[in-house]
């Protein structure tokens, strides 16, 4: 929890926060530096080094003022503005918006870009919650949804309709770690005047920046790598200023804004994003190489391996192969419970991207709404385990996996 010295009533921060977006500090700096300083302004002597927590919902206004109302639900209060400027710099976007969850970010983005009668064309390889949002909720709003195999370029084109407005994909893919080539999809979007939205949660801006590869909007579940400590629920949308403003309007009316304390904690977590992700990249690579030789695993899914189906595109487009990997047990689904009960360092829990290493079984979490056959069709057979590699020593993690599968 912050000390009293870390808090303020916000009256002396409003002007600083409002001008943060106008400053170009960090615009040409490396992302390791941006993660620490992006959006920061140089104050007078006595200004706190750490961004203070402004735990206030509302702020004083002048009678008869036409200035924008500062209100937490509007996403424009001091902690929000500093953080959003930093995220925009990290992704290379005009603007960014932080919402109360990754699903809130996806939902508000879709409702900002789509109207009743529109058509959404989405990759069939998406997070289970995203698929449920599209199939069960968007359709009730009069929005048509079609899923395609994202690796078939002609499939995207054949599935476009006269009322298609948005193309949506996720890369790297949860939980299979497939890495998609955005170039043919972004070329199609440009040709037809469609918006390309990419969920880049697995990569983080350190490993991949989808806007550089033709995306129009980037979404993150900030709960994962951006925060990195398993203690904040938040989502992020990055894109042009006009699109972000439309998303913000949806956020306001749907009540999806993040709380000031969550914003403060998220900004604190982002400061170590670069060093965390680079360590996780290295550790996951070491563990994946070991796992390919371990007889308990029939298959190892990691983009850094030459055996991965997307290794070439991953090598070409990613700055790091990530901290996410998956294994298929040689003995199948019957062996998963025994392994999970024996693990000591890997924690059996959902979510990902934190400092602690986690293991989860998608058939009981993100993809439980699909049948065994449906999961297998998208590369998630029974006996498939997703591993989120944390900051522990990789040798210790390898030893933990080995003793749990003997």
Task: State the main characteristics.
406 residues, alpha/beta, Aspartate Aminotransferase, domain 2, Aspartate Aminotransferase, domain 1, seven-stranded mixed sheet, five-stranded mixed sheet, 15 helices, 12 strands, globular
Describe the structure.
With 406 residues, the chain is of the alpha/beta class. It has two domains: 14-270, 3-Layer(aba) Sandwich (Aspartate Aminotransferase, domain 2); 273-404, Alpha-Beta Complex (Aspartate Aminotransferase, domain 1), CATH 3.90.1150.10. The chain is built from 15 helices and twelve strands. It has helices spanning 14-20, 31-37, 78-91, 102-113, 128-137, 153-159, 182-192, 204-207, 241-254, 260-270, 273-293, 311-317, 336-342, 372-377, 394-404, and strands at residues 95-99, 119-123, 144-148, 164-170, 195-199, 217-221, 235-239, 297-301, 324-329, 347-348, 358-360, 384-388. The protein is globular and about 70 Å long.
């Amino acid at each position: 929890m912050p000390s009293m010295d870390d808090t303020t009533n916000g009256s002396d921060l409003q002007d600083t926060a409002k001008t943060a977006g106008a400053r170009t500090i960090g615009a040409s700096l490396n992302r390791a530096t941006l993660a620490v300083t992006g959006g920061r302004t140089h104050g007078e002597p006595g200004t706190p080094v750490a961004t203070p927590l402004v735990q206030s919902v509302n702020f004083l206004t002048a009678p008869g003022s036409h200035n924008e109302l500062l209100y937490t639900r509007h996403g424009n209060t001091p902690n929000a503005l500093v953080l959003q400027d930093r995220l925009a710099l990290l992704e290379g976007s005009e603007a960014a918006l932080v919402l109360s969850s990754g699903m809130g970010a996806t939902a508000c983005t879709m409702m900002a870009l789509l109207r009743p009668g529109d058509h959404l064309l989405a990759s069939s390889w998406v997070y289970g919650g995203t698929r449920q949002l599209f199939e069960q909720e968007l359709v009730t709003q009069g929005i048509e949804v079609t899923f395609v195999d994202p690796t078939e370029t002609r499939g995207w084109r054949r599935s476009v309709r006269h009322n298609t407005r948005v193309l949506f994909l996720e890369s790297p893919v949860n939980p299979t770690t497939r890495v998609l080539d955005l170039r043919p999809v972004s070329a199609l979007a440009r040709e037809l005047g469609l918006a390309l939205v990419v969920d880049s949660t697995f990569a983080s801006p350190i490993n991949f920046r989808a806007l550089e590869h033709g995306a129009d909007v980037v979404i993150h579940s900030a709960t994962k790598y951006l925060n990195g400590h398993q203690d904040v629920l938040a989502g992020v949308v990055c894109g042009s200023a006009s699109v972000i403003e439309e998303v913000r309007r949806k956020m306001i009316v749907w009540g999806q804004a993040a709380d000031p304390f969550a914003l403060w904690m998220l900004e604190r977590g982002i400061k170590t994003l670069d060093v965390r992700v680079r360590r996780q990249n290295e550790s996951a690579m070491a563990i994946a190489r070991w796992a390919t030789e371990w007889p308990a695993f029939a298959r190892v899914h990691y983009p850094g391996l030459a055996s991965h189906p997307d290794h070439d595109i991953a090598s070409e487009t990613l700055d790091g192969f990530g901290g996410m990997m998956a294994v298929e047990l040689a003995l199948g689904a019957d062996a998963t419970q025994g392994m999970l009960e024996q693990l000591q360092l890997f924690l059996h829990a959902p979510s990902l991207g934190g400092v602690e290493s986690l293991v989860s079984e998608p058939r009981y979490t993100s993809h439980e709404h699909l049948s065994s056959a449906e999961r297998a069709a998208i590369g998630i057979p029974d006996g498939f385990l997703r591993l989120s590699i944390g900051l522990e020593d990789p040798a210790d993690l390898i030893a933990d996996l080995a003793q749990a599968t003997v």
